[in-house]
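lol forgot to send this yesterday, sorry. struct tokens for the thing we talked abt
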């Protein structure tokens, strides 16, 4: 086992850290307050190559490995989890899915601008009545010969309004259940698409989340990804890679809150000494440090397995479930350590706590991850 990072991985980590600590930090509270999309930062991070990190250079991506991606995601999420999820959806769910499964024509037309970050993408699987139970897709894609006719509604779509390219899962052959689902590349400006209002979320408020309605939307046949009926497997294989991104985001939220808790504990005095000198608090910080290190190791292990073309279903579920649960726990403790200051916005930890909650819900709830892990034990 080699726990050393390469020079390139360290450079990528440093570049993400510099951008987050220098730029994202400046307006993160204001964007959270106003629920404002970070357009300027998306553009800057695209120029730095962070929107298509793992896409091969021949498709205009950064050609980086998944370990580098985990390192960068942690640094961005430490400061701004909204920016991190925009990055994660574009990198993992959209660019990764297209890199791995799209046709050459689809890659030339859609992947390249996404990898350059000129446009961003969204992944449309969840529906009003199909969240965790993703095989029950009610959105239909009727085969009309040289095109498909799309009808239905998708819910909770990250980048729903800011994306130009959608990856949409829809049912073509209901009698075949999950084997009848297809995945399509759909252009957002296609006639028949209506975007619902911005969801007023508890956290990650500057990432835009919307419902998307499809009414008789014509999708050219050449925009189907893979063979007829490949859509559900596609979604699952993309999601299991995507969960490494969300696990790293959760890790970043946890370590961001932890760094603030340690700094505060060294400054704040109570009962005649800095509070870190009280053993009850020092032990709490010690427990938090161990959990963050465990979460980081799970993220890096899943990334390493992906980079070495090994199965990642269980490793990414473990990383996602553990890191998300740890993020919730660590951010709650960080608020507690800050006392009253932790409960006001200026100190950031209450925002990190609100952001942590979502990591236990999206890209498969913590309970879904436990289903995936426990099923592997039953085999
Ligand atoms: N890789 C390949 N194939 C897979 C797979 C995987 N990881 N997981 C399942 N499949 C295949 C199965 O082999 C099966 O295929 P066959 O019919 O050929 O045997 C088929 O898919 C159906 O699988 P299951 O019988 O296991 O289906 P299930 O109903 O029991 O559900 C589940 C499986 C894992 C619970 C799945 O429904 C799931 O992951 N649900 C959570 C969905 C989710 O993560 N949603 C997040 C939305 S995206 C999002 O949040 C993005 C965002 O904007 C931030």
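and heres what i got for the seq, position by position
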């Amino acid at each position: 086992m080699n726990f050393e990072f390469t020079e390139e991985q360290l450079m990528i980590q440093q570049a993400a850290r510099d951008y987050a600590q220098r730029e994202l930090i400046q307006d993160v509270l204001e964007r959270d307050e106003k629920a404002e999309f970070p357009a300027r930062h998306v553009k800057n991070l695209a120029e730095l190559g962070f929107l298509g990190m793992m896409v091969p250079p021949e498709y205009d991506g950064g050609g980086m490995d998944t370990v580098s991606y985990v390192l960068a995601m942690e640094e961005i999420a430490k400061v701004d989890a909204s920016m991190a999820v925009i990055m994660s959806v574009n990198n993992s769910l959209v660019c990764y899915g297209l890199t791995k499964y799209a046709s050459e024509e689809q890659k030339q037309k859609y992947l390249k601008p996404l990898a350059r970050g000129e446009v961003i993408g969204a992944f449309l699987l969840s529906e009003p009545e199909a969240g965790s139970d993703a095989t029950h897709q009610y959105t239909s894609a009727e085969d009309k010969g040289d095109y498909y006719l799309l009808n239905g509604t998708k819910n909770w779509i990250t980048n729903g309004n800011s994306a130009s390219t959608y990856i949409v899962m829809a049912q073509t052959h209901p009698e075949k259940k999950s084997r009848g689902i297809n995945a399509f590349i759909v252009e957002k400006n296609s006639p028949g698409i209506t975007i619902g209002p911005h969801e007023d979320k508890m956290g990650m408020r500057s990432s835009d989340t919307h419902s998307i309605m499809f009414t008789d939307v014509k999708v050219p046949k050449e925009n189907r990804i893979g063979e007829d009926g490949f859509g559900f497997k596609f979604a699952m294989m993309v999601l299991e890679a995507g969960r490494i991104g969300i696990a790293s985001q959760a890790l970043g939220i946890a370590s961001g809150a932890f760094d603030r808790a340690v700094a505060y504990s060294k400054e704040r005095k109570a009962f005649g000494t800095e509070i870190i000198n009280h053993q009850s608090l020092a032990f709490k910080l010690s427990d938090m440090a161990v959990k963050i290190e465990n979460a980081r190791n799970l993220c890096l292990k899943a990334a390493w397995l992906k980079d070495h073309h090994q199965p990642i279903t269980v490793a990414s579920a473990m990383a996602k479930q553990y890191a998300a649960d740890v993020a919730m726990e660590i951010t709650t403790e960080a608020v507690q350590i800050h006392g009253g200051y932790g409960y006001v916005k200026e100190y950031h930890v209450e925002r990190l706590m609100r952001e942590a909650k979502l990591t236990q819900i999206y890209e498969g709830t913590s309970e879904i991850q436990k289903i995936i892990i426990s099923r592997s034990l039953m085999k």
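The CA atoms of residues 27 and 39 lie 12 Å apart. anyway ping me if u want another try
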